[in-house]
Write a sequence for this structure.
DNA sequence: CAAGATTACGACAGGCGTAACTATT
DNA sequence: AATAGTTACGCCTGTCGTAATCTTG
């Protein structure tokens, strides 16, 4: 799956056809057609139904639109990030946190940091459940991480308790809760097929 | 900026060197070296400082690590999405919302949807400030969008008020608020260089 | 001398455009 | 006939590996 392929794919979706997509991209029609068929061949899935002289998204194609948009947006963000880094940046702070913890004491920390270093850039990104906190910080992915207790303190890591946070389990009325749900609701949201992180699914 | 370049770049970062990266990627060292230099040339920025026989991330390179990881993760999510779409999916729901609105009545909506269609997949993604709600829904980016009032109702769009939400402005102690801050705090967070969306900066 | 990064170079694949073809309205 | 998508073919860029070169500990 190549970068350009997603770009062309989205162009076809947005312009409702290869012709328009090619015009929008500034390339010839066969180029888009080839790229699209190459992508379909590579994935082994038909992304569009060829109906008459038109193209309409298939189920698989539909499921690829969102993630592809995500990719292109993040690529743009990466490029922007880079041009921005040319400016006069005096400091830099990267913080990672589980989505549920993005509101709370952490904002006070950021505010304090901004007060002390007005020129600095602060970047805030989401933790995934499988991320390893110790390696994240060690490898320089971020300076701080916000996570739930308990977590084992790796060597050379400082852990400070920021506070408590109330949790609420949301579930459809009439749903029977599994045993022990009151104390350990684990990934209840996940079991409903819901996740809040971008582009993922359950 | 190509896809493979990011992959190689991250491999170099994670393996602390071109040699290890090449081994991890299963390619020859010159391949990685070329790809990396090509990326640097294309971006016009030096991503690594060559110190002795080692490579250490430059400031620009550092700023590219997070976004690149984001891209690769999203690509993986896209691929996964596609293989998953082969399965027996009975329904699909895409919802978009501003990050600040991701908790609230919306979860009840999702819960209700999941109760009715247990087989369905729900995807939840973030709105950007510049997104146009009407075109988002019209172009099939999502089925629902959650946004602040006021918003103009496009033709063929239904708008339902979900509820109210309390806002809090967080700022460093001692900061003088600009005039009218009590009623229109606009993008105050932004003015502090803080944004919560992944990979962006202020 | 050993380890690691870069350069040189030839082989190959892949993307591109032009042009010709097919099919649907 | 016109519009839209696909196939055929040739050009050219760029990626890869092998081998040689440079640099540092």
């Amino acid at each position: 799956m190549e970068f350009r392929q997603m770009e062309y794919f989205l162009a076809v979706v947005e312009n409702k056809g290869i012709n328009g997509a090619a015009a929008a991209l500034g390339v010839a029609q066969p180029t888009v057609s080839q790229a699209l068929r190459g992508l379909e061949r590579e994935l082994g899935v038909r992304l569009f139904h060829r109906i008459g002289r038109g193209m309409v998204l298939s189920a698989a194609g539909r499921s690829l639109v969102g993630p592809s948009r995500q990719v292109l947006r993040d690529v743009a963000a990466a490029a922007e990030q880079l041009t921005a880094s040319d400016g006069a940046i005096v400091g830099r702070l990267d913080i990672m946190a589980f989505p549920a913890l993005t509101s709370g004491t952490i904002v006070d920390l950021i505010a304090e940091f901004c007060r002390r270093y007005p020129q600095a850039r602060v970047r805030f990104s989401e933790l995934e459940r499988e991320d390893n906190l110790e390696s994240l910080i060690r490898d320089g992915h971020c300076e701080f991480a916000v996570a739930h207790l308990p977590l084992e303190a790796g060597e050379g890591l400082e852990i400070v308790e920021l506070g408590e946070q109330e949790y609420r389990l949301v579930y459809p009325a009439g749903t029977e809760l599994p045993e022990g749900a009151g104390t350990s609701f684990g990934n209840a949201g996940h079991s409903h097929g819901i996740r809040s992180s971008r582009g993922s699914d359950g």
Remarks:
- Strands of chain A lie at 48-51, 54-57, 92-97, 121-126, 144-146.
